[in-house]
Write a structure and sequence with these properties.
Order of helices and strands: EEHEEHHHHHEEEHHH
CATH superfamily of the largest domain: Iron/manganese superoxide dismutase, C-terminal domain
Bound molecules: manganese (II) ion
Strand order of the largest sheet: 1-2-3-4
CATH class of the largest domain: Alpha Beta
Radius of gyration: 23 Å
Strand content: 15-25%
Largest sheet: 4 strands, antiparallel
Number of domains: 3
CATH topology of the largest domain: minor pseudopilin epsh fold
């Protein structure tokens, strides 16, 4: 156990071959996780070179239910692989990109909104893996065990869906079409646009409706429901039958969460 345990971060100095290093120790009890910040400085021919780094540590959020909780509609094995392997992989690669960018403390949701502001060589990594992390974090929350909450949209959200799409059934039809017609990998979305209107959209790969300059302006908005139609989301159980997966998925939509997100997005 380091002498810094249970104490505030503490600078320690080391010197090796003329290179003076200052190491900031933060104890595990202080940060809950042990991490460190290093700064190294050296003076050579009158110039001062200083570098510092903090490792990015975005961690995989736990599933809000057991992997088998969505059965029979979504099987436990698919959920385990999807969360433990696919989502974890987006996070590992996002952390690598954040470290390369020196943005260890960046908020992924904020970062993906303006991909074009990032250095070109990291844009695709943040777009794919930042998008993957944000999309999946929301996706787990938009599902819940069948019968554990409202069976459909209620209140202000139901009224708005009806006035926008004609009926709840028409909305589900439109959303299902967006999901089934998405060529290759991607997502179907219900978004709240800047003017407060609802829209059904679809994006390729891990693109998210908040990504300015990536998603067409007309499709920009705050997602309040999304469906992952990558084959990894359904292939073990549904094989090539994506429409069957979409039909079954409605049984596990967490309408309470959707209503909450709709209220936050001020529909
Ligand atoms: Mn996925």
């Amino acid at each position: 156990m380091s002498p810094a345990a249970n104490r505030r971060p503490e600078w320690r100095e080391e010197e090796t071959e003329g290179l003076k290093k200052q190491i900031l120790w933060i104890s595990s009890s202080y940060m809950k996780r042990r991490s460190f910040i290093t700064t190294a400085s050296s003076i050579a021919v009158g110039s001062l070179v200083t570098t510092s780094s903090v490792r990015a540590e975005i961690v995989l959020p736990a599933l809000p239910y057991a992997p088998a909780a969505l059965e029979p509609h979504i099987d436990a094995e698919t959920m385990s692989i999807h969360h433990d392997k696919h989502h974890a992989s987006y996070i590992a690669k996002l952390n690598d990109a954040l470290n390369a960018l020196g943005k260890s403390d960046a908020n992924a949701q904020d970062l993906i909104k303006d991909i074009s502001a990032l250095p070109v060589d990291q844009q695709m990594a943040v777009r794919n893996n930042g998008g993957g992390h944000v999309n999946h974090s929301m996706f787990w929350q938009w599902m819940a065990p069948a019968g554990s909450g409202p069976s459909g949209p209620e209140g202000a959200l139901a009224v708005k869906l009806q006035s926008t799409f004609g009926s709840i059934e028409d909305f589900k039809k439109r959303f299902g079409e967006a999901a089934s017609k998405r060529f290759g990998s991607g997502w179907a979305w219900l978004i709240v646009k800047a003017d407060g209107k609802l829209a059904v959209t679809s994006t390729a790969n891990q693109d998210n409706p908040t990504m300015k300059g990536v998603v067409p302006d007309a499709d920009l908005g705050t997602p309040i429901l999304g469906l992952d139609v990558w084959e990894h989301a359904y292939y073990l159980k549904y094989r090539n039958k994506r429409p069957d997966y979409i039909t079954a998925w409605w049984n596990v939509v967490n309408w309470a969460q959707v209503a909450k997100d709709a209220a936050t997005a001020k529909i």
